[in-house]
Amino acid sequence: MSVVVVNTQGWVLDAHSLIDKGYSRCIRLRDNNNQKSHVEFCFKSRCFQILKSHLSENASAATDGGNADTLQKTDKPSKKRKRSELNQGEIESRAFHEKIRSAILKGTKSLVDSARSLGYLNSATDAVKEPLPSSRECRLAALCEMAKELPLVDDEQQEECTQLLVAEDGCTSHVDLFSRVTENRADSATVVTLMGEEYVIPPHTAFLVSDFTRIQPLVHYGKRFDLIVMDPPWVNKSVKRSGRYSSLPSTQLRRLPIPLLASPNCLVVTWVTNRPSHLRFVRDELYPHWGVEVLAEWMWVKVTTSGQFVFPLDSHHKKPYEVLVLGRYRPSEDNATSSSETCEVPVEAQRLIVSVPSALHSQKPSLSEVLKPYIGAEAECLELFARSLQPGWTSWGNEVIKFQHTSYFSLMPADNGADDRPTATPVLSSSGESSHCPTTVDQ
């Protein structure tokens, strides 16, 4: 089950199921030999067991025993802080929140109610006993810094910018992750040892591990993409304090070679924090700089396993939603090619994506199923600043395989006799009638 509900308000996603679709069949390779074993991996369920809202003590006491009414109880704005004056950023944030508040409240209630009618988001009792994966240090970003000492790949060497994850002799020991695009062309996920660590690589996946200054191999890769999704490392105070990852100034994002990567009418989707300055920058500066026409602002609404907002809707500190800005790349007439023209599906101006978020920092839900109607089943898809991989996608970032490490997965007994056909999942359509949706992504 991946898309639980779809109606005129948006979607309810099972983000955990979306991840697991690529790992039902895995081949595990051993270092420097041809030994293989068939295994099955499942992303750890504990990462998606968000059982309670992050409420204040007073709010928690007020909502105890009333999970089913949580969305209704947030209908009234919470009591505001006493403060002499607000800065300009806070004024803009409050104005933006008031503008979208009603749509989020009503739309989320509609979607959650529909999901509950199908037996989803209505129970917080199925807690998984296992602990969260340990907060292991990701060495990829540091290794990218070291890789800067390697020579740049020029245009004459672009045919050498790709490599197979598994060589013909079954070895992975000579894979150059930092200056070549690595491809897993297998029909099954592959568990390989890279840099002394085991990673699970989805089928039909390509990726490049590099920082912002070494993105050239991706440009030389020779593909034009019909969908580009990016989750930039926006500068903010919490990131600076935590030191979880290096942030990137907004102005540097303008240097991303989107016109060299996007096909005509490519759908460009950017995750944006709730700072109005970031949203304004994407809409008014970044997209116009690339030649991308702004089409819509969608919202990702984060809820618990029982359908509550993960933070109070009117919290002054953190909101239970994030913004997605969608646009289409409109190349100049000189750069447009008629052979690349596709039938463009209109993008609705407002939609909600409701899901239980991951407890792992910065792990966003896959948008593959949500965006498929707007790009087509055979679309070439790219994720920038990725921290995980998706079947059929190309991904780039300095931590692009972070969440592919086997420590984030549970090893399951392999069922070699399992039926290869996708399982049908009940989906509530916009008319309210039940339909079925395959749990595999057609790429």
From TrEMBL:
One GO CC annotation: nucleus
GO MF assignments: nucleic acid binding; RNA methyltransferase activity; site-specific DNA-methyltransferase (adenine-specific) activity
InterPro entries, sorted: DNA_methylase_N6_adenine_CS, MT-A70-like, SAM-dependent_MTases_sf
One Gene Ontology term from the biological process aspect of the record: methylation
Alphabetical list of Pfam families matching this protein: MT-A70
Chain positions covered by the region annotation Disordered: 60-87, 417-443
Residue stretches of biased makeup (Polar residues): 426-443
Stored PANTHER family: N(6)-ADENINE-SPECIFIC METHYLTRANSFERASE METTL4 (PTHR12829:SF4), N6-ADENOSINE-METHYLTRANSFERASE (PTHR12829)
Protein family according to the UniProt entry: Belongs to the MT-A70-like family.
Name of this chain's protein: Methyltransferase-like protein 4
Species assigned in the record: Cottoperca gobio
Gene name of the record: mettl4
